[in-house]
């Protein structure tokens, strides 16, 4: 057993380093294999060409947002901009940028592993508390941290968005950093990750809810009723006097909410956001300041100005909607994301990490400009819950669906744009299929999680009956 | 009280409608050839000759709207490809390398013509196709083609009627799109086309009266068609003698038309035009010679409203810079005095803003800021 456990980390490191080597090999191909021009990989928000353009505009003393090319953060421009310009002789262009993205991927994988280890420990602890395991050897708990990290590193979507030079790896790193900080209770780190993720792309703002729940209540756990059931059963067994029974039955059904930690988190969020805003205001001082930045980044995301095709569903719709109804439909589409937040919180508040996964999955389906980099993130977060989601239905169907869509998408794009034998409907049909598969995936994983909780409840009540 | 303000407004409008307050600032030319097909070669040659004359005398391409069917130069029946002549001696190739046609082919329609005149275009129409004249413009409108009693035929498919033209000119006057307009028409029964005109400051001349035809001048046996009309031929003969510095008057132009040579009566209408024809140089319309006023002082736009002008325009240049500095110092003193009364917060913001403007290496500061941020993150995450 000990040998196996030693072998497992070794195998993990072997696979991880193999994926890094694979990426480096792919990067060394000239022209990044034309992946940076694929609409699935680079969107108007994540394209490195637009970043290079924004950097050039900045160097030419113009606003980086002039000409509606660059729509990202000015801080990213300061970090990645100089790297897009420098090229080492004999090496493919943008090599330094690719290395930055590879490092971002490695960091995300390591952080995912850390999150997974914490979740695994919590899962084992809860299982023992509920009386399922007498020792840790009864039931095999899968090492979800390693699995999640490897899924992230070897997911073709991640590899493609890393080699295709989109800025999704950095956005994913920020999100994973926020989750890691929350899970390991490092409040400034969580706040930093949260602020950076929201700053880079607007949608991770929804992660505020799961992070606050993690910091307030703790990690994923089965519903509290189960704990109270087992405790009441044990109490019935242990003490027979009615007085002690009554005293113990008056226990509260609520976990204590750690307000102090949450207040700490909010304070750090405020601090980091002020700092980031000050830096942005400094760098955009002469070019319109913060107002210009908000209009061009968040305003661009919310108003869907760019209708070039991508793997999402909005471009086709907004190309044909009449101007009179455009604002109405913008509100509808954005509220579509917002109105799902509250019911999910109510239902899944005992599992905040899973809630974070569901939020990220929904926002990557219903984003303004989705790309495969977003899918890469939520697929690897899904892998963190292999222990609970092991009975998920339609897994093979979904896997085939994802595979088919990702293979057909470049074909349809080619037929439409390059050969002219297809039209936009081909590519949009593909995008709709992708959205359907993603929705089925999210729905099935949520129902699998809820079934897991129901199964726990049934087996715990069975346990109680059997014992008494 | 209301009656008084109404009377004041009326007086103002009268004062401005006489056109005395605007000065002549630019010249425009709208040259329209309304015919197509090979046998109407002479109409295109007319228009191109006038285009050449008007350019030679100073109006630039950006102020000329040239509307041609443009199917002569590269016509399959043209023995001299890419060349258009207005004389059988073939001395002058009108279709040289410097002809900018704004509306060509099927774009020469009555609708487009009226849109050009009134300025009511679709949003996508480029500036080169718009008549961007203002209240100081003198516009020359030259039209040639086949016409009749109170109409002008456009490209064999539609016609422009005299009241359409009069309405367009009235709109132009209302919108102050010209200071003076000269209409020159070379068609049969041309004078009937401006029968309905009523707007002031319009001068119109047509090549023939009602019931008369305008004839072509001569046939070019090489090209095979008539190459120029009589009216335009004699107009050009007048202008070829001129250069940009001559100040021949409109009167001499109009008197140069001999009814016997034209075989029609060139009729002109001056009842809507106030200045005496003998005092108006032809370059007011056919060329672009401006009145220049020499001044040593700082340029200011010629408008009657100079209320916000702090700088005295009569000061000579060398004293002007000192005056500017004094002005700036005064303004700064005023600002400081007002600022002391404001709260210190805004004072701090203003100071910060000034410091930021002086800061040149913003990028290094931002990079430093990012590095500090990452450092703080690492430190705080390891400690807390």
TrEMBL record, chain A:
UniProt entry keywords in alphabetical sequence: Endoplasmic reticulum, GPI-anchor biosynthesis, Membrane, Transmembrane, Transmembrane helix
Topology term for the membrane: Multi-pass membrane protein
Main location: endoplasmic reticulum
UniProt keyword Endoplasmic reticulum, yes or no: yes
Identification of the protein by name: Phosphatidylinositol glycan anchor biosynthesis class U protein isoform X1
Pfam families recorded: PIG-U
Pathway: Glycolipid biosynthesis; glycosylphosphatidylinositol-anchor biosynthesis
Location relative to the cell: Endoplasmic reticulum membrane
InterPro entries: PIG-U
Family named by the database record: Belongs to the PIGU family.
Annotated transmembrane regions: 12-29, 93-112, 202-219, 265-285, 297-318, 324-346, 353-369, 397-419, 431-450
TrEMBL record, chain B:
Transmembrane segments: none
Database matches in Pfam families: Peptidase_C13
Family note: Belongs to the peptidase C13 family.
Record pathway: Glycolipid biosynthesis; glycosylphosphatidylinositol-anchor biosynthesis
InterPro entries xref list: GPI_transamidase, Peptidase_C13
Organism expressing this protein natively: Camelina sativa
Signal peptide bounds: 1-19
Source domain of life: Eukaryota
Keywords, comma-separated and alphabetical: GPI-anchor biosynthesis, Signal
Protein name in UniProt: GPI-anchor transamidase isoform X1
